[in-house]
Amino acid sequence: MPPIRNAPLVLLIVVWFATSFPPARRFEGEAFAGDWPQVLGPNRDGKAVGETIVPWTAPPKIRWRVPCGAGYAGVAVTNGKVLLWHRQDEHELLDCLSTEDGQRLWQAKFPAVYRGGVEPDLGPRCVPLVSGEHVFVYGAAGDLSAVSIADGTTLWTRQLRTDYAADDGYFGAGSSPIVFKKNLIVPVGGSDDAGLVAVNTSDGQTRWTAVDQEAAYSSPVKIEIDGQTRIIAALRLQTVMIDPESGKVLSEIDFGKRGPTVIAATPLIEHERMLLTAAYGVGCRMLDMSVKPPKDLWSSSDVISSQYATPVHIGDWLYAITGREDFGTGELLCARWSDGKVTWRQPGFGTAHLIGAGDRVLSQLISGRLELFAADASKFRSLAETELPAGIYRALPALSAGTLYCRRSISSSEGELIAIDLK
């Protein structure tokens, strides 16, 4: 479906990128080389450490294709398994597929109760989160479940948005949870200071609640401050830094705008600095999070205004999509991390999801074009491009061991997962 003009369009999206090492024995909390266990990769920044994408000279080969239902959730890839989170009729389904041939290894099934908002697609938006032997899935209605990766057994389920009287918002639940030790932290947007809720990974019981804010569509990230791990969560009108053990709010930053607006791009972290960006006249801010209150290093309303695509930071530079898909103003640009100075722009490029790999960036356009370009701050240099099968590509791709997993929407209830060989 085309985006609805003059309504905020946002999808929670995910990029998974990996290297091709053989599987090894798993230990609790350890990811295999080649695993991409959470939204935007191991570090939630859209970058693939140690991965190289070679420019193709002929259209890449499609290895396999699997039909799926509704939703915009990107897949997770772990230890030879692809975790596909989607909806068919009255069920949300977690399918575990083989990376080799797409054959289903197991399926976990849950009631689908989300009835929709602005967007007609009723499927889940959040990326599966792999931690140890579990995978956690968060449905469009705000139901959170823990599933065994080994055999698909459901370990527990919580109806978090129902429990905490959270509103569905424009598109239902769309912020992918984050795990810290035994705390699974979820932007719920509930009442009575339940903007963020932490539950025990073992049994789903609530550990703490914090923040009187509606949830947004941006996913929380980790930051290290003075040797301590903190969680950054961009919510509806505020971005907060919290202690993940207790839920104590350590810093609050006003970011957002009332009215038909959405915060969707995930904060980018580099050491103690943080970049926030949003469309709808909000713009971007670079902050030093090591001081209290956090200090603005630079801000702008017209450098990066991303509707939902998270920028990629490579070296001293940001590669970003700015503008709105529903207005047809998606533009690719390069800007300096330290001060926001723009060195080049590609007007009319379109809205795309970006994956950083070494000195290259892979873009998957919503229209279905793949384009590889150089991470070159001096000028835009396209290295290769190809067209994908017809459809809308709003779910972020996952790249693991040289295979790119792209999810296309054919209609509001029908889609397909495509495995493409980029070796």
UniProtKB/TrEMBL annotation:
Ranges for domain Pyrrolo-quinoline quinone repeat: 62-210
InterPro entries to which the protein is assigned, alphabetical: PQQ_rpt_dom, Quinoprotein_ADH-like_sf, WD40/YVTN_repeat-like_dom_sf
Name this polypeptide is given: Outer membrane protein assembly factor BamB, contains PQQ-like beta-propeller repeat
